[in-house]
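Comment thread on ticket #2218

A.B. wrote:
> Attaching the input chain for the structure job we discussed in standup.
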Amino acid sequence: MDVSIIIVSYNSLSVLGPCLESIRKQTYSGRIEVIVVDNASRDGTPDMVEKEFPEVKLIAERENYGYSKGVNLGMREARGNYFLIINPDTIVKQDAVDKLMQFMDDHKDAGIVGPKLVFHDGNLQYSCRRFYTWKVLLLRRTPLGKIFRNSKVVADHLMLDFDHESTKEVDWILGACMLVRRDAVQSVGMMDERFFLYFEDVDWCYRMRQKNWQVYYYPDAVIIHGYARESAQSVLNRSFIAHLASMIRYYEKWNFILYFLKRYREVGKVLLFLLLDMIAFNIAFLCAYYLRVSLHSIFTNPILPIDVYQRFVVFENLLFVFTYFALGLYRIRRETSYVDELFDIGRAIIFASILLMASTYLSKIRIYSRMIVAFLVPFAILFDWFIRMGARAFHKRLLELKIDLKRVCIVGPLDRAKDLESKLLRGDMPGMDVVGVVVTGEETDTGKETASEIPLEAYREGYPEAPEESPFKAPSDAPLESFGILASPFGGSLGSLSDLEDIVDRYRIQEVIFLSGAVSEERFAEFVTMGRRRVVDITVLTDHTGLVVHQASVADLFGRPVIAYQRDTRYVFDRFSKRALDIILGITFSVVSVPFFVIYYLYAYARGKKPFTHEKRIGLGGEPFTVPIAGDGAVSGPSDLVSLPLFWLVVIGKMSLVGPYPIPAEDGGLLDTGARFRFEVRPGITGYWRMGKSARLSMGDMLAQDANYIQNWSLIQDLKILFTTVSKIVAGRNRRPPLVS
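C.D. wrote:
> Ran it. Output below, let me know if you need it in another format.
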């Protein structure tokens, strides 16, 4: 297949038909296919395509995911060596496709070529542009353009000084019609799907030029385009808002000043949290003070005026901030759960309050009312927790909108690097903008990969043949090499390892992830130094996950780093405390749940059903025991009216409040597969297996969570899991998943 024509439609019934008809009338000498990706149109566009153009491959989406994602979907399904991406409101004039293809064949450095676009009356559209500046954006995307119609800024942007009847290498061309080389897409990657509509063409052309693929304007090929420029009509319409959102994403991605600020984002985040914490501390003090004032009748000592506490408030703020720094609350982490945040804040506030009380005897700072300090503790914990979680929720929303992403490149062998890249692209770790990979062991100066490097057996899969009557059908003798798939959404290798520093600067990289064994120790030391100099984070992804446990520490042995495992001196006490907590809470919950259990028991028998059944599960040491199973097949837990038997199992030592999932007895083969570690502790009523989002867990996921729990066990961690479980039950989001083998 020579060329695949890709059209993304959305409620385009009135214009798509003439567009497809103009393509059908082409006398193109090569092989051609047409793909229409419909973004959930409601005007009958898909039905029209199926009925009137059966030769066209239709991909009908259930939702409108945006223009760039639609183009990418079309390219994934395309078989051509070139992709002709056109809008549905275009008319392809005779020989336009042939001329564009011939230009590509004659210019091997061309990644994208665009034709001359004209209105229906034949007047020229300025479809080749220089890159945007902030002045251009104001004049082109707001009503200000109507006031300054003859602005030189706009004239330079539209290249009015250029003869549009001549061929020229340009910054970018309108995405209304562009012919793209498959090899260029293999190298650069597909359209960035964070751009729902607008700026996806600018971004793509910019990335093409980064990889030394040229963008050309070629006027001999002519396309008629119905150009509306809706985004410039009003600041209130949806097109303007979509354009503004895409503009923000584009400049957040490529602007040098914003990139410079993002390199020092950690400092900015620390200062922001410092400001928010001090606001919370002062609000907490005011609440504590006025609560003490309102309760003056029950205290013997009078309350002093608030201005007397000025020195105390300053000292309180400094002490709290110092404690936060000492306990690591200003250490920026990738992701922090609300439970971890609450526990960390509570620990810091309580510790700081004890120091505040002791300051009466150690300094000249007087505490005129210790009740104010007592009231201050819960207020400070709650207010600071709410403010911090609000800030994190706001930042999480920005990440969901694809704003403030961290630009990352991966260094390592191709197969492992691509595997990690795909996981990051799925959103397993939010906030990552995967730029690409640097393949170790393969020196590649251009970073270009060709479709011929893909295994040939992969080409034929998943491509149904066009109908026999199709004028777009490829000849039966089409060479196998003319079919293909895209290897990666973000292109091929960014370059060689020796060019890593240049790659960091060129692609605005903010973090480099090294896979284990990707480089030698000597070279890795060089890259760490480079990271410090360039203010770039360096991360090593190790395969030895078992080494990373909270009891491990890095020590020195004859000048070599070693990982030391030393049993925590509190371990025996914590194990005793865990068992004591199990017994106390087990008895308490057993007694409290008796009335509910009786009601449930009578209700079940009144309906002629058993309240629960019994099933064998594997417990401590691999010994089987019997657990009650609720009506939905899940192990009954704290949210069930039938939880009495489980809590009694906790009391007698068969289970624990927190622990691994109780594996069914028929899966006892785990004992022989290296998973014996999970039977060294009692299974739990709750655990990490309740914390996830998925309704079902695979055996592999379950074992990974169990290993994480056992290796990093602590009493504090158990309390956090219990707190999270209770909060999920209250919020109605309790998850009790069945195990999937």
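A.B. wrote:
> Thanks. Noting for the ticket: The mean pLDDT is 78.
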